[in-house]
Amino acid sequence: MIKYFVIFFVLLSNANGSDLLNITFLGTGTPRPNLDKLGPSILIKANQEELLIDVGRGITLRLNQIGNNYSKINNIYLSHMHYDHIIGLADFWLTSNLWQKKTDTNIYGPKGVKKFCDGLMNSYQLDLKYRYEGNNYSKLKCINFSEISINNNKILVTPFTNDHGHVDNSYGFKILFNDKSIVYSGDTTLSKNVVNNAKGTDILIHEIIATSKKVLDNNKKLRKVFKSHTNINQIIKVLNTCKPKLTILNHALLFGVNEEYVLREIKKSYSGNVIFSKDLMSIDLGEEHNIFNIGK
Ligand SMILES: [Zn+2]
Ligand SMILES: [Zn+2]
Fold this sequence. Notes:
Helices cover 30% and strands 28% of the residues. It is an alpha/beta fold.
């Protein structure tokens, strides 16, 4: 009952142009296909503005589940060019056109983003030719992070580099709206930039990797992957330095261990609030954090 009341309240307040900042996890997964955890993507809303952080596999399905018709999502930020964070972009773009999106969509990303967008738009030329007359469809406008000069948006998104092993252009984001702040680590191992940006933040959304000793000892490839992500000891260091009001572990690479194990280990050395993200988990950042499930 409380859940439905909260959802009703949010819909009502958004309709009235509330200045509440809301985040919804559309997908919380990794490259591994999982119906319960689609590809990484977060929808951020305030007033009439909506934006996405990353566009992983299946996000149009989640947007449909929450009744979002894409029309207000005019800015998308890509943390890096690993496919699990960008593979949903074509589907978002083409489906938003079918839904008659009127405005172009800005895609902010690291080096390589323009080439990626050009390739995407070329790849679907025939579909666009069949469906639309002339150039009459919404375009992707791809902008390299280095070219962002003015951010006119009311939600301020600032990219910062992190440390994702072999990926030379990988970013996290600091998101500010009024007096609220969210930090998204992106895919990274322990990163000074994440720590510096996340000190005292309202919400830290941080990736995590954890394995049993047996699995790690027997898997050479996994040991390599392990170095590009943040393990339990590292996240404890991050949290004890930053002390976010709420930490949400996301993009969890768990091998031979489960979420309960990870939380138990973290809580031995850190007493703050830590939870795991779930698809369609939504949070209002007001005087306190209201966490609820939307769309199910
Ligand atoms: Zn990833
Ligand atoms: Zn990655």
